Amino acid sequence: MQDSKNKATPIFQYDQTDVAISAITTKYQGFFKVNEYQLSHKLFSQKQSNEFTREVFERGDAVVIMLYDPLQDNLLLLEQFRAGALRVNETPWMLEFVAGMFDDDESPIDVAVRETKEEANIDLAPEHVKPIMKYLSSPGGMSECIHFYWAEFNSNDVTPGSIYGLDDENEDILLHIISRESALALLSEGKISNAATIIGLQWLAMNYQNL
């Protein structure tokens, strides 16, 4: 007879049907939105929790695309100002991959192609956009889901130091071509500190030999 202490605890026993939402109230509506949820959910004891309140930052979903040149072992990184980094970073200018939010009726691939053209002036064929993963940015208080992709590009066709971005979105984007090893060195030195770039570089470190 198997000892019950050695039985594995099942994971993901519950799903959305185990959450009871009694009300959703919009507390702020601007470029982004904050909703207040009144809810309860099933507990691991099989009982139901008390009803409680959570505010959720409804930022919308986004796409990140890592442009990698496997022949030259180079990456395209964008440098741009981020107001959210003012409080904790030495510099609020971040090194990032191409990224952007969804417009109405766009697919993730549509966003990847559009943003690559807007931010790096690279024409990307949809069939060359390859999935890496989807992840939640900060599910404790934000609903945003990131759709992460990579695509091959020719780094010899990109002029480092070029500046792109949309004026009406106050974008000021500086292009860098950086070797994979140099990018990983910047990561280890703490000079790359935004989640999407960290996740992408760690994925690349594990997978570049198969690309």
Write the layout of secondary structure elements.
Elements: E1 19-29, E2 33-41, E3 52-58, E4 62-69, E5 74-81, E6 93-96, E7 98-101, H1 108-120, E8 130-136, E9 145-152, E10 163-164, E11 173-179, H2 180-188, H3 195-207
Parallel strand pairs: 4-9
Antiparallel strand pairs: 1-2, 2-3, 4-5, 4-7, 5-6, 5-11, 8-9, 10-11
- The number of distinct structural domains comes to 2
Structural class: alpha+beta
Distance between the termini: 48 Å
Number of strands: 11
CATH topology of the largest domain: Nucleoside Triphosphate Pyrophosphohydrolase
- Indicate the low-confidence ranges by residue numbers: none
CATH architecture verdict of the largest domain: Alpha-Beta Complex
Shape descriptor:
globular
CATH class of the largest domain: Alpha Beta
Q: What's the CATH H-level homologous superfamily of the largest domain?
A: Nucleoside Triphosphate Pyrophosphohydrolase
* Count of DSSP H/I helices: 3
Average pLDDT confidence is 94
Radius of gyration, in angstroms, nearest whole number: 21 Å
What fraction of the residues are assigned to beta strands by DSSP? 35-45%
Tell me the helix content. 10-25%
- List the helices and strands in order: EEEEEEEHEEEEHH
Q: What can be said about the biggest beta sheet? A: 8 strands, mixed
